[in-house]
Write the structure tokens for this entry.
Amino acid sequence: MKNEALIDSLVKDLKPVKRLPPLWKRILIWGTVATLISGFELFVIAQLRPEAIDMLREHPRFLAETFLIFVTPIFAAVAALVLSVPGNEKRNWLQAAAILSFLAFIGMTVYGLWHPIYEATVYGHRDSCPIDISLFGLVPMAILFYLVRQAAPFRWKWLSLMITLAAFAPLAAVMQLTCMANSLHNLIGHILPIFLMAGLVLWLGKKYLKT
Amino acid sequence: MKSMGPAENEAKWSQLMAKSLDGDAAAYNLLLGDLVPYIRNFCRSKVRHLDLSDDVVQDALIALHRFRHTYDPSRPFLPWLRTIIRHKVIDSLRSHHRHMQNEIFDNETVDAAAQPDVNGLTSRQDAQDLRTLLKSLPEDYRQPIELLKIEEYSVEEVAGRLGLSPSAVKMRVHRGFKMLKERAEKEVYEE
């Protein structure tokens, strides 16, 4: 088909389009859903560990770990929503920030295996963390898939990774304050499920985001 | 009169795009017509094969149409457009690379098939069958295969003889092999 014929057919197909909602609105939708789900986990399913707030005050390393796992999903969600709109490549640093903060959190957790900063506590001991993270994370995941698909998801692999972190890391962040403080448990029960869900999200990304 | 460059045109294109988003067909027609040379130049700076860059221009126009709702008229137009074109260039190069790999695989398969098998049974009948199948191909695909594989000309020589680019010759040989394979499988299945 020649360019002129193609242009004619595209012009014939032209209709007024519903524009993409502004970025702040799309971030607000994710933020609301992620906050509701995390709040449900924090106040209904699990409970805040009695000494969690004291630990945040007394142990800078615990405070740093918690900070990193809280900012990871924020960077990741903003990266996914910003970078799914063409012309925003200069804001690539957002996805680097999400990955670096998550890796730093993992690094600190691994370091804690050999150099614990606090006594392992039995408070908040639960075995269902991987299930909670995987299950409740599906809701923000579905919302993010919808929001990213609305735009132009050209780089589906990166976007899938950002969706994974934005959907499942908020639950891991909540676990930091509700579940037992133990590095090995954190690695297996809170971090491993995020990696496992990344496989699912990449598969879904290939199916639904690939343009 | 000196024609305006992309930077000078950006404000005009942005306005045309904004009108197009509201369904103004005349503005859209003008915009797409204006963009073709820009997209073509952009593609040619990234893709050496002319055939490929023409395909990318059309892919980019289709992508622009599909994702036009993501354009925000308050933001610059060119970075938005360049992202779409760049993505289509990458897609096209990947797909070209895959075709080339398949072609190498197909060529090896055909070469292997041309060797006598362990019992020396690759027979005149097989060669006859292959010729019959080859004759059933459309001329556009049969000619490059015959020149390249039977008369053993180089890709460049075949391209020169047929007035095609080397990449177009490779593409036609690849598609021709694919058709041959499908027809051979169909015959085996019917037998």
